[in-house]
Amino acid sequence: MAAGDDPLIFIGKGGCTIQNLQETSGAKFNLNRQTNILTISGSEDAVQLGLAAAQSILAAEVERKADETEERVTWGTDAIKAVIGRGGANIRAVQEATGVRIDADVEAGTLVITGPSGQVTTAMTMCHNAAFGEVQEVLELGSRNAVNLVYGPNFQTIRSLQDSTGCKLDITRGSTTLKLAGSTEAVAEATTQIRALLEANRGFEMTIENSKVGAVYGKGGETLRSIQDRTGTQIDVSRGPTHATVSVMGTVEASGRARNMLQRAIDGEVELAPGEVAEEVECGSATAAVIGRGGSNVAELEKTHGVKINVRSELQKARVVGKPDKVAAAVKAIEAIAKPILDAEVAQKKADDEVETGESAWQVDGGGDDAEGW
């Protein structure tokens, strides 16, 4: 008898179909793969039984093909990789559970499922869940600080959240929107953990003048990075027309440390490294001269003596930080700039005081009537 378009249906996986035919009918089956002719031999009863069984298999195959459908989707490379799973585990599980044939093209990002319509629908649902999750939710984080908090150092936090919940997490580049995908339970658990993480790291906001932003960042952003690294907080600075908002996210303890460090940076206090000292110099009315035009004197003093100098005009003080010998030399240089101006100020005040008290050598007493000779 003709074996049909797909004669291998009589062989079955590992030859199980043809073996079962022979055992149940008592006939011998021989398939010529070149001619697609199936020969059944044996006693008349055995041949009749074998023939009926073979015709039943052919009829079932015809019915299966009549119901067969093909569904094709394009989901992108990452989604197709998720469908395949590690070592092909996901795609094998779907094929075994539904009996469909699945062709996944990672490079093209396409998926083709072929089989009975009902099974194709089931397989497509299973593949979609593997790629995108049973449930998809969106959580607005609200700020770049929150995004960085969810990511964590070297993306450790987001990986830990995914591993512990089984939920897939994704943040679109440049946005503050977090997408969650997975089973209902996984998405719910991930949402709970993320909200708890955000609540535990609420932090604070402070408003500063735009002129103080540079102090917060430091040279090349060094100060801001140092505060974040040393406290484990996330800090973002947003400028306005006249003032800037400094947003800090971290635990209560970490945020407290960050607040103190930020305030010291704003106040111009330089962090001391091991072996360094700090000394303050009263500049008084010589403050502008110490600073120089556009900060030129301070820059020259720092370069010459290898120290850091912060001059606070409102307090008329200069703070010098560095190695003890270098600080001492820089202080002497600052005093040399300030001394002539301060000495002149003292002399002028003394002269003014003498005039007011009548003790000046140039004061003329015009009250005597005994003056003679003039």
Per-chain topology:
Blueprint: H1 16-25, E1 28-32, E2 37-41, H2 44-67, E3 68-74, H3 77-84, H4 89-98, E4 101-105, E5 110-116, H5 117-132, E6 135-140, H6 144-151, H7 156-165, E7 168-171, E8 177-182, H8 184-200, E9 204-209, H9 213-217, H10 222-231, E10 234-239, E11 243-249, H11 252-266, E12 277-282, H12 287-291, H13 296-305, E13 308-312, E14 317-322, H14 324-357
Description:
By secondary structure, the chain is of the alpha+beta class. 49% of the residues lie in helices and 22% in strands. The protein contains 14 helices and 14 strands. It has helices spanning 16-25, 44-67, 77-84, 89-98, 117-132, 144-151, 156-165, 184-200, 213-217, 222-231, 252-266, 287-291, 296-305, 324-357; strands at residues 28-32, 37-41, 68-74, 101-105, 110-116, 135-140, 168-171, 177-182, 204-209, 234-239, 243-249, 277-282, 308-312, 317-322. The strands form 5 sheets. A 3-stranded antiparallel β-sheet has the order 3-5-4. Strands 6-8-7 form a 3-stranded antiparallel β-sheet, sandwiched between helices. Strand 4 and strand 5 form a beta hairpin. The chain is rod-shaped and about 150 Å long. Residues 370-374 have low confidence and may be disordered.
